[in-house]
Amino acid sequence: MAAAAAAAAVGGPQPPQPELTAPGLALDKAATAAHLKAALSRPDNRAGAEELQALLERVLSAERPLTTTADGEEAAVAGGGGGPGAAEEEALEWCKCLLAGGGGYDEFCAAVRAYDPAALCGLVWTANFVAYRCRTCGISPCMSLCAECFHQGDHTGHDFNMFRSQAGGACDCGDSNVMRESGFCKRHQIKSSSNIPCVPKDLLMMSEFVLPRFIFCLIQYLREGYNEPADVPSEKDLNKVLQLLEPQISFLEDLTKMGGAMRSVLTQVLTNQQNYKDLTSGLGENACAKKSHEKYLIALKSSGLTYPEDKLVYGIQEPSAGTSTLAAQGFAGATGTLGQLDSSDEEDQDGSQGLGKRKRVKLSSSTKDQSIMDVLKHKSFLEELLFWTIKYEFPQKMVTFLLNMLPDQEYKVAFTKTFVQHYAFIMKTLKKSHESDTMSNRIVHISVQLFSNEELARQVTEECQLLDIMVTVLLYMMESCLIKSELQDEENSLHVVVNCGEALLKNNTYWPLVSDFINILSHQSVAKRFLEDHGLLVTWMNFVSFFQGMNLNKRELNEHVEFESQTYYAAFAAELEACAQPMWGLLSHCKVRETQEYTRNVVRYCLEALQDWFDAINFVDEPAPNQVTFHLPLHRYYAMFLSKAVKCQELDLDSVLPDQEMLMKLMIHPLQIQASLAEIHSNMWVRNGLQIKGQAMTYVQSHFCNSMIDPDIYLLQVCASRLDPDYFISSVFERFKVVDLLTMASQHQNTVLDAEHERSMLEGALTFLVILLSLRLHLGMSDDEILRAEMVAQLCMNDRTHSSLLDLIPENPNPKSGIIPGSYSFESVLSAVADFKAPVFEPGGSMQQGMYTPKAEVWDQEFDPVMVILRTVYRRDVQSAMDRYTAFLKQSGKFPGNPWPPYKKRTPLHPSYKGLMRLLHCKTLHIVLFTLLYKILMDHQNLSEHVLCMVLYLIELGLENSAEEESDEEASVCGPERCHDSWFPGSNLVSNMRHFINYVRVRVPETAPEVKRDSLASTSSDSLSSLQNSGTAQVFSLVAERRKKFQEIINRSSSEANQVVRPKTSSKWSAPGSAPQLTTAILEIKESILSLLIKLHHKLSGKQNSYYPPWLDDIEILIQPEIPKYNHGDGITAVERILLKAALQSRMNKRIIEEICRKVTPPVPPKKITAAEKKTLDKEERRQKARERQQKLLAEFASRQKSFMETAMDVDSPENDIPMEITTAEPQVSEAVYDCVICGQSGPSSEDRPTGLVVLLQASSVLGQCRDNIEPKKLPITEEEQIYPWDTCAAVHDVRLSLLQRYFKDSSCLLAVSIGWEGGVYVQTCGHTLHIDCHKSYMESLRNDQVLQGFSVDKGEFTCPLCRQFANSVLPCYPGSNVESNLWQRPSNKSIQDLIKEVEELQGRPGAFPVSISSETNLSKEMESVMKDIKNTTQKKYRDYSKTPGSPDNDFLFMYSVARTNLELELIHRGGNLCSGGASTAGKRSCLNQLFHVLALHMRLYSIDSEYNPWRKLTQLVEEVNSQQGNEEQQPEVPILYHDVTSLLLIQILMMPQPLRKDHFTCIVKVLFTLLYTQALVALSVKCNEEDRSAWKHTGALKKNTCDAEKSYEVLLSFVISELSKGKLYHEEGTQECAMVSPIAWSPESMEKYLQDFCLPFLRITSLLQHHLFGEDLPSCQEEEEFSILSCCLGLLPTFYQTEHPFISASCLDWPVPAFDIISQWCFEINSFTERHAEQGKALLIQESRWKLPHLLQLPENYNTIFQYYHRKTCSVCTKVPKDPAVCLVCGTFVCLKGLCCKQQSYCECVLHSQNCGAGTGIFLLINASVIIIIRGHRFCLWGSVYLDAHGEEDRDLRRGKPLYICKERYKVLEQQWISHTFDHINKRWGPHYNGL
Description:
The protein is built from 77 helices and 28 strands. Strand 24 and strand 25 form a beta hairpin. Helices cover 50% and strands 6% of the residues.
């Protein structure tokens, strides 16, 4: 439609159009528009209308061929320049002008907006938009709100979450059909239609004329642009067209945003049929219009759609099934696109299937389907627009425009009908689309807005046959990928199933259609129509049967399958989405009695479909061997509707059950699945690859189980309750292939199973029976009980987080039914069964989330192993649950040993299912139980404890559910004929338990031991006679039983013969194919179940006569049977419990038990240990031994480690062990000894073979983040809040240095300060040492071993060989003996003057080291290399501050600053002061001593020229000779009062020869303290105001001549003031000064405090240094006495200094030269500087020395505040909204993570920022993921989240979208790791980031 004035038209024939010269064009647009508007406003406006039409014809002519048509290429080049040229712009301008009627377009928009009755929000968004869903307010589950409406509404305490839209959506605020009105936001609460004035007629009059032409023009363009080539049009072409139309569609979109008034005009235009007819019929003379209409018809036909007029072109007759449909295809077939499901389908599906295999299923009413699938007639613009939207595969802009119109009610209805009308066409386009994913999302984006509204859905269902259309379209869609089923009878099967390998299923292409179907079924009115319509139900069952038996698995018996197909994903997804979810939708409407009819309908058609299916696959009674399908949706529909009927609708179960024969067929396939599960877990399907295990796991997995395994088991329960129990039980054992195992003989042959699988298959069969008999999910449990049972099962396996519980508890997949996650019942049940364990933080850094763990009483009473087994995906979870149960029993003292799974009481059965219990009372089961007990007692092979456990469980179940009328049954004596054909007299377990069985005839292989015994028995007359008495020996064959019963059932149901003579069981029926060499033997048994149990008790306890009936001692037991002592325990307890129950149920049993116990049993032969048991015993023993070995090793290792730690401590402070006072006459000479952790040798560090400490060097800017105010810095969350780094320590020091460099000599400046506040090098060690040559070879081996990718060996990184701590260098240990230091520490009595001289001399002696540096030893080489490492650790910009690059002063400054950085950081780790004293943890790990040696060695290489040595200025008075000369040419030196005293200290000490003597150290400290104190006085004097100064000057002067004037701060202060008054320092304070000065009145106390605070930082650093150099412990103290304690410790105060009056800092002063002289000398320097620069002079004097500890930014309580501000914030660098925004937690900078937009020289923004802000360490919060990421150098790691939800869980990537709150403890841990530089040690998962973050 990019249409333009025809004058600009290019190419194409152009008929002469005289109107073109009309004068209108010449006038300017606005005037024309105004003129036309006036003309149209007249009552008779025909002339105006014609004029306007002519103008529009001209302006919006669509004649110019669009530049994308094939032949238009040259034309485009010739004229309009291709792209949206000026012409289109022109057309749009015209339209805007005409709409506004001559006024300004913006004013017009504003005017229209004023009439907007904004009752609905309707904001449309596209994928990835962040929206909200509130389940408390939603009526429809699809309800969603935009962020603005959500935050404007009140949702406190609601169940809401934030989510990222997958497909796009629209805001439902204000729509009461979708959400409750209470949730509306403030804007949409007011029903404002009443008070909005009526729209004036003339405002929108022009729009009504202009828009139809405009839209028609758009349609013409769409028609033009669509070429239907022989193949599907390439997307490239379509996209080109769409790009050209971008401005036009955007214009329409803007119109929709003008509000209700404009929308209703658009609705009129879009739905008006007359307009459409007039403009598009193509009947006019206009050639262009004709051509366009033709193209439209071609497009329709090629889509396989007819235009109702051309019925002749396109035959209506439906091609008969199977024949080629090409003949009938007419035009559509020829174009090769998908016409009426023709054979052209074969081409776009995979051709390998050939035509032969496909089977077309003919649908019932061809004409109806024909009309649904193939006829489209467009009657309005809206309909054709939608048609093209589909044709172009739903371009986003068009979708948004169509959706933006939805708030208009009339449009909504019209659009919904149009959408439904095009539904079949949508499906066809979707199937062909290459971008089916995108297209699916766009379709659902539209349909969810339409079908979530019940009223609308109902209307369309009634008026447009919506259900018919949907079901038919789904059926057609699936028909394109059917294949013949290979289940059962491969040759003759008539059943077809979907082929899961097809793209349609594999890519989930059917998803949008199914999702719409589920959506409309959630509305009751629609679902009712569906359930009432028999035709629809038949079609739907037909559809479901396509999935019945899909993805058939055939067991590979010979070799491994070569290609593992992954089609099973598709199959499970298809069954869940296309069958199960609609089923749950329908079930949710069958909740009450009134809906019985619906259930009957579904069940009826379901059974019919099943019958057809059995017929189609030729099923009789035996399933085909070795194949299984997990997909039986018809069975499951039937089962779930049965369950609902009984549970909610009070239907009589028998009225909806089929005959016995059908039930027998129904049970076969679900039973086959259960047996196959056991086979898969027994590794019998191992040759089919891993995918078969995947299927078995998916089948029971939480999202599938209640649509798969639960209905299957329920159906089997129903069948079992109605079929003959003997038949059912024998079927089970036959399906599980363990029939041959159930023999009394000790050996047997199994024809269908390998010996190694027998045991697990037997366990499987018994476990299945236990589940079948004890599961009550559909047999009488209420919803809340089910929820509770599910929850307990999950919690027993493992502690769970809240979200994983929500995920693991199966809920009905349909959101409208049953449990909504987070609903009331979920929370209340959770709090009833579980305790919350708050998230914990282990020091190791592993962070646990908040977990729920079962309460003790749950373990005690509710732990249900059956439920756990049913719900475990991995077998190990069952073990885990049992381990936890065992631990609970041990802990609570209930049972010490290894318990068995407890027996749990069951919910009572619903009366309809009482028949299920007959299974427990059938002879077949009793014979099996008897046989198994006997075999276990006799230690036959292949039986396990698990088998015994299940056998006992079944017996106990039988006792719990026995028939009541047992007593009279005892009286009646059974007739002999019944005894004859059966082992047991009756079918009641209680009485059968005591029945003795004497002889059994078994068939055994001839080799079996029983054969020999047999001949012996027959000779002894005694045994013979007894044999006769007991009748024939028992024979039992399960298979024969089953065949017989089956025959009976079949005969009974076909009622051919009323009575069939039952053949005697004793007839020897042998399994077909069984080996011939079997012989018959008779075994003497003489046992009953009771006697076997008692013997078993003896066997388990290993003692003779261990069982003693408890009721003989305590008759009470029989009265109150519930005895807690039997609840938990092992097999012995279980046997006792069963015997007690048996005794309770019948007096006879009680008597027999007593009798058995009385007979003194002969001694049991020593217990034979079976191979299996031997194996487990061996295992136990081996484990025990292994454990012991491990313990021993660990102990050894621990002791080694301990000794390591001790030696490591010695390394740090070799003097520790030497007492301070020298009492010993001769000092013992002991050198420091180091252990090498690589070669294990110990010895001293020497010149030739130096030892080194394992260290990690890292650049750090933590110090620079200290600030001087207490107010914490917050993360900015509004535009106003910004963070400026002016007040940080780093910034202040930077300013100071540059200020000094401006006025003073550079070399002198570099000695006056320290650097390293940013990018300083921090050195830390794990305390382990190694030989440096060992380390080199270790690095070599790491270099060759490429496996370790956690760190980069080339950069020198490694992990400590002993403790695996990360490191990157080795710091050589300086060789030296302990004794030296001892001598050095002797206090000397030299005067301070002497010491000062010595210090000066020592400093002057260049390189006077014991180790002469000239001879290159290994040690000095290493020292140099480590120095190089230290330098390379930080960036150049953090090392070079000199104005002359590369000057030695730079290195000098850098080296002493490294010492400073490490001391300052240690101080911070100690909490910023030394009050705690002690050696602290940092002490053990400190390597300052070694570091000092390395630094001192290098510092000595630069000797300071003695002229400039500050030491002289401090200790001597200089004669003022050349003070003023030569000053003008070169810059002066930095005045001593501007020097940083701590820096001076380090320079002085590092310039001394090492090791340093203690008295020299003290001397240096004393001298420097005098300077520091003077600085404090000067700063104080500058801080206070004029009056204070003069007052102090006066008071001090009076005391000047007292004896200790030099130690009185008042005197000194007054002197300083008078000296400085000589200069200009105090001048020109004037007005602005008062503002700066604090108005405090200075009292002596506050002055003293100021002076102490000023000096404390220096004292702290000095004390630390002394501690490291001389190994003296730090005293601990209170904060207020820190100053005095530290000054004592440093020797500034005599130790005996104790005075009553308060402590005065000045008393620490010890002036080397007369105080007043030196002070006046220092002040003179200042005065001469302030002559010229008074302001700067003052600024340099006031130093802020009280830095607070560094902190990360303070984060807001609620994560949402961060998210809402940052996730839409634009990046300041690239001004785009980043895809992955992140924010730095140190300084608050907003960065693009991984953003290529902000990349600089191959570094992405986060990496770059981490270098600038943290010298290589960055801590970033990822806004869209709520997690924190750490960058350290070239590596990064995900740290975790500091925001947790209400249940203590992280929400990475905000998937759940629940509100998150700050977890203060976690944040503290993060901050701690940042400050202590331990990220590398604590976080384990590091990876390289390649600068890409």
